From TrEMBL:
Protein name: Aminotransferase
An MF annotation (GO) of this entry: transaminase activity
Pfam entry (one): Aminotran_5
Bilayer-spanning residue ranges: none
Keywords: Aminotransferase, Pyridoxal phosphate, Transferase
Lineage: Bacteria, Pseudomonadati, Bacteroidota, Cytophagia, Cytophagales
Keyword Transferase found: yes
InterPro entries documented for this protein: Aminotrans_V_dom (IPR000192), PyrdxlP-dep_Trfase (IPR015424), PyrdxlP-dep_Trfase_major (IPR015421), PyrdxlP-dep_Trfase_small (IPR015422)
Source species, domain of life: Bacteria
PANTHER family found in the cross-reference section: BLR3095 PROTEIN (PTHR43586:SF15), CYSTEINE DESULFURASE (PTHR43586)
Ranges where the Aminotransferase class V domain occurs: 65-389
Organism: Spirosoma telluris
């Protein structure tokens, strides 16, 4: 979204139904529904208890509105390039299916990934790399702090004339370290590779400007920072995919498929651009209205203001936790830590899972991932939530 000057957001806790005394700092695992999203689901369920009067166009209009909202969120004026997908793995499978069609693809080239990546961004490439004779290069996180600048440097160094595909997120799903997508996009274009982004742990909570990054594909699950329902996501597919092969031949993806009285006149032509990549039954009569409301709220709140809110919310906690021997990535702009998702490295003697369980017993929800606690606040969080986190960690992070 383009940056605009707006007032700082205040806490939106009253817009959610989280119980009093629950300290949910875990949006990176699953976002709670806002009251408005929850109501949209109830309304849709009531409406479809009686399908009388349902029109052919009703199978399409909800997804059309959602594609426009997602286009606004990622700053592109072409919603026809947005497809409805059920998961990140589905979107990555579309890329894998079409990698053989990439101009100049040849055996011996490489796919570049980052270390400790989410499995859906790794498993997708095993079969296709074997079929096409490609290799996979994994750029691992540095051992030393600060990690972000060096990790970004290593990634850029790994992208060369032998690169076919680069897969990278805006923010690492475990550590909260940012990747400079504009610099990466520039390097990828210089070598003629494809850039594919998993935006699941960033889009909706941090500004994302597709026009500046110029990726070939962006895939995003809807149930985390887009604040929507599970098993419903969105993906952008650029011009490289305009004549590609979809994973399935859904009837809704063909031209004039809203003309139900002519569906037996089989249509060989797909609707424009990314429409061929929509999952079957992409209408999602119950879930699509929920995602529509969630995206509308995010556009109103603005990801830049969500970053500012979470930065200010957590600012007083970090020095206290560092005094306990914990470490975190410094703020270093587009190559440092994000504010909505922060990996807190525990001392070597601490057991992350045991600490997560101790926090949960005190109604504080975060996630243990490898050697870090993943702390993921949002607009519904209050200073009391942060104080509860610090209080419990002071009791549990001890030798």
């Amino acid at each position: 979204m383009p940056a605009v000057e707006t007032a700082l957001l205040t806490c939106q806790n009253d817009q959610f139904s989280l119980p009093e005394g629950i300290h949910y700092l875990n949006c990176a695992t699953r976002a709670p529904f806002s009251k408005a999203v929850e109501q949209a689901g109830h309304t849709a369920l009531s409406q479809h208890a009686n399908p009388f009067g349902l029109r052919p166009d009703d199978f399409f209009t909800g997804a059309i509105r959602v594609r426009k909202l997602f286009s606004t969120l990622i700053n592109t004026n072409d919603p026809d390039r947005i497809a409805v997908v059920p998961s990140v793995s589905y979107g990555m499978a579309v890329v894998a299916r079409n990698l053989a069609l990439k101009p100049g693809i040849r055996a011996g080239q490489k796919i570049v990934l980052i270390g400790d990546e989410f499995p859906s961004d790794v498993y997708a490439w095993g079969r296709v790399s074997t079929e096409l004779g490609l290799t996979i290069t994994t750029v691992n996180m540095p051992d030393e702090f600060p990690k972000g600048p060096r990790w970004n440097e290593r990634l850029l160094d790994a992208i060369d004339a032998g690169t076919a595909l680069v897969v990278v997120p805006p923010v690492h799903w475990m550590y909260g370290i940012r990747f400079d997508l504009e610099a990466i996009g520039k390097r990828v274009r210089e070598v003629g590779a494809w850039l594919v982004i998993d935006g699941t742990q960033a889009i909706g909570a941090i500004p994302f400007d597709l026009t500046r990054i110029q990726p070939d594909a962006v895939v995003c699950a809807g149930y985390k920072w887009m604040m929507g329902p599970y098993s419903l996501g969105l993906a952008y597919f650029g011009p490289a995919f305009d004549e590609g092969t979809p994973l399935e031949e859904g009837w809704m993806n063909r031209l004039d498929s809203n003309q139900f009285h002519q569906l037996m006149d089989y249509q060989p032509i797909y609707r424009a651009k990314a429409y061929r990549y929509n999952v079957g039954e992409h209408t999602h009569f119950l879930q699509m209205p929920m995602l529509e409301v969630a995206l509308s709220q995010l556009i109103d709140w603005q990801p830049s203001r969500i970053q500012d809110y979470t930065e200010n919310l957590m600012a007083h906690a970090w020095p206290s936790l560092q005094e306990l021997g914990c470490r975190l990535e410094p703020e270093t702009g587009s190559i440092g830590r994000s504010h909505h998702l922060v990996g807190l490295w525990l001392p070597d003697y601490a057991d992350p899972m045991a600490i997560q369980l101790a926090l949960q017993k005190e109604n504080v929800s975060v996630s243990a991932r490898a050697r870090v606690l993943r702390i993921a606040p949002h607009l519904y969080n209050t200073p009391d939530d942060v104080d509860a986190l610090v209080r419990v960690l002071r009791k549990t992070v001890v030798e």
